[in-house]
């Protein structure tokens, strides 16, 4: 069954995803046909620096679903490592990574009893989520400056529209003059659809009383809706609209696990589709559908996606511990977290148990 994207922004993301899938599929080095491609998009799609600065990001650190409704594959690493994620990505030397992981364990172990409880992991997840938020605030300052060159502290939709079109290769002065004179812009259909989607999002970020201007805080909500209650609702509404096939503004299991449009070309692709369905089914039944009635409402999805929800953080902490809790004591010991380092950091450590106690 195909998953149809009704919004321009989702269609834009899905087009990029499918193009990247074809590239990866041809090389036979693919993890999942329908898997989210947000992280890969940044590396493979030749977007300009200006476009990256002023466009809402496809991927939101510390949020369980991507903007296109795909499950965030890196969520566990993001909420465990926070701003230290890049260090593990860039430094692949196992011994140094092991030392870093030991240092992190000692910080998570707040009461210094050499084990990590669910409450300690919850506290740590909330701290790391706050780190991602602060990073978003810092990036937003630069992005806001890019669209507010006169420095008056406010940006109109027309000012933003000019900058967006310039980032897409259109002549900035020509676009500014046409907008000022209410002339037809004559842009391609995809650009026009993305503009309309961005406009809707722009006015959603305009806090009451609506003045059609965004200040720096409102612009942060525009770029990072996960940190604004009002914009989080809007993001959830958009995701539900793209997945909801019968228009009841709720999601059934079959709607949530529906595959994106595409043909299964070989057994490998079929296996990948099976993994997609299995992963989303597990997430739907065990995590998102809080009351287990087989229906996910917008309220349930909003709670699930809220990065600052302490209840979610505790549940996530328990799930993360369960993955590596080999002695079944509901806590994590250093040996366990080192053994399952790939789950927590994305980096596999060799000889994880060697000299652990001496180094610690």
Distance between the termini: 51 Å
Strand content: under 5%
Name the average pLDDT.
Answer: 82
Number of helices: 19
| Largest sheet geometry | 2 strands, parallel
Q: Helix/strand-derived class?
A: mainly alpha
Secondary-structure element order, N to C? EHHHHHHHEHHHEHHEHEHEHHHHH
Strand adjacency order, main sheet: 1-5
Low-confidence stretches are 1-6, 15-48, 352-360
* Outline type: globular
- Helix coverage percent of residues? 55-70%
The total beta strand count reads 6
Radius of gyration from CA coordinates = 22 Å
Describe the 3D structure:
The protein is mostly helical. Helices cover 60% and strands 3% of the residues. It contains 19 helices and six strands. The strands form three sheets. A two-stranded parallel ribbon has the order 1-5. A two-stranded antiparallel ribbon has the order 2-3.
Please supply descriptive tags for the structure shown above.
two-stranded parallel ribbon; EF-hand-dom_pair; 6 strands; mainly alpha; signal; 360 residues; 60% helix; globular; two-stranded antiparallel ribbon
Summarize the structure.
This protein has helices spanning 8-27, 38-44, 49-54, 75-81, 85-90, 94-108, 118-147, 157-167, 172-180, 189-205, 216-223, 229-243, 253-256, 267-288, 298-305, 310-324, 334-339, 341-345, 356-359, and strands at 2-3, 155-156, 213-214, 251-252, 259-260, 295-296.
């Amino acid at each position: 069954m195909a998953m149809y994207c009704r919004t321009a922004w989702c269609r834009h993301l899905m087009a990029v995803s499918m193009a990247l899938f074809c590239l990866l599929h041809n090389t036979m080095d693919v993890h999942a046909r329908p898997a989210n491609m947000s992280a890969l998009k940044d590396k493979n799609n030749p977007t300009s620096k200006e476009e990256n600065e002023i466009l809402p990001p496809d991927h939101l650190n510390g949020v369980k679903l991507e903007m296109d409704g795909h499950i965030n594959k890196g969520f566990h690493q993001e909420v465990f490592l926070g701003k230290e994620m890049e260090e593990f990505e860039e430094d692949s030397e196992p011994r140094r990574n092991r030392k870093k992981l030991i240092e992190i364990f000692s910080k998570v172990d707040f009461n210094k009893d050499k084990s990590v409880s669910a409450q300690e992991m919850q506290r740590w997840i909330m701290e790391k989520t706050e780190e991602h938020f602060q990073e978003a605030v810092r990036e937003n300052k630069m992005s806001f400056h890019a669209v507010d060159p006169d420095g008056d502290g406010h940006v109109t939709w027309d000012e933003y529209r000019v900058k967006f079109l310039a980032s897409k290769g259109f002549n900035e002065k020509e676009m500014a003059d046409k907008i000022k004179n209410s002339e037809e812009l004559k842009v391609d259909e995809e650009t026009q659809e993305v503009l309309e989607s961005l406009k809707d999002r722009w006015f959603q970020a305009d806090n009451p009383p609506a003045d059609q201007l965004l200040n720096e805080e409102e612009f942060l909500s525009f770029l990072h809706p996960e940190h604004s209650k009002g914009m989080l609702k809007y993001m959830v509404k958009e995701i539900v609209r793209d997945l909801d096939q019968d228009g009841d503004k709720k999601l059934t299991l079959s709607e949530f696990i529906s595959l994106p449009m595409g043909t299964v070309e070989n057994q490998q692709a079929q296996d990948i589709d099976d993994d997609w369905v299995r992963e989303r089914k597990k997430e739907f039944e065990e995590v998102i559908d809080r009351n287990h009635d087989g229906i996910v409402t917008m309220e349930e999805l909003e709670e699930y996606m809220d990065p600052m929800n302490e209840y979610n953080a505790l549940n996530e902490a328990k799930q993360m511990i369960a993955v590596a809790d080999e002695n079944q004591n509901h806590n994590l010991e250093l040996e366990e977290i080192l053994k399952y380092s790939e789950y927590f950091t994305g980096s596999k450590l060799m000889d994880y148990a060697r000299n652990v106690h001496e180094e610690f």
